[in-house]
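This section describes the prediction task in plain terms. A model, or a person checking by hand, is given the sequence of a single protein chain and must write out its three-dimensional structure as a string of tokens. No templates, partner chains or ligands are provided. The sample shown here is typical of the held-out split.
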Amino acid sequence: MPKSLSRQLTFLPPPKIWESRFGPTLFRRIPTQPGVYLLGDGQGHVLYVGKAINLRRRLLSYKNLPLDRCSRKTARLIRQTKAISWEILPTPEAALLRENELLRLLKPKFNQLNTRPEHYGRIMLTISPTGALTLTWGRGHPPSQITAHWYGAFKGLRRLQVALQALLRLCIIITARPDSPHQLPHPAYAEKIPPTLPLPAPLPPPLNSPQVWHDFFAGHNDLLLLQLESLLPPNLPLSLRRMAELDLKRLRTFYTAGPLRNQSLCQLAGLPGPWLAPEELDDLLALEQAAR
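The expected answer:
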């Protein structure tokens, strides 16, 4: 091929794949109402689920999108899409909820958010006859749908696990007063956290009050963090002091993104809490963001 022709081809605009693949007739049939759209591979598999206030406008934006001006992921989606379908919904809010429902059901490979709520975290606080406290964590719905003693669901399972280890470390520092981080027991720093974490006993007041822990995990207040901070030994070695400060910061992050947010969502939706099912959490978060 002559170099001059090669240079000319380089400057040709990239083809709009959907325009040649689906033609103009399909896009004229797409309604302008709110709804959800499904992009498939033509073999019965859904690649992507999205929502739109105006379905035609949204799908035309894909059709007219130059492949050299979009992300690689979007370009792959456009290339792999061989089928387009849609559902009309009465309102944008209904479209949003239907989108979440389809994401949970279909788990399309080009979607990431809200596809696996079964992996969200939950916490249970139990009290022994002697008053010892134990934290138990798990994923998804509680066994047998027993929700009375569970807190959650919490998005970000790793953040939940980090928070539980931070609580355990702080309680050990307060009760056992180790001289170095190396004296902490294995569950306090293990990469894989056991599902049950007994807290050291006896805890000093007011940490030994179950109400303090309930208020924290239910999102009522973060007095637990103030009490943990106030009970830290004043003469802690520098390494333990820095660890404790970092753990308190981790717990504040968890409280804001987990219990406090869940409590706010429950209040807005008129739900009793503190348990909020993973699917409800995704739907309420989506509605809250749409209302902003």
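For orientation: Residues 117-291 form one domain.
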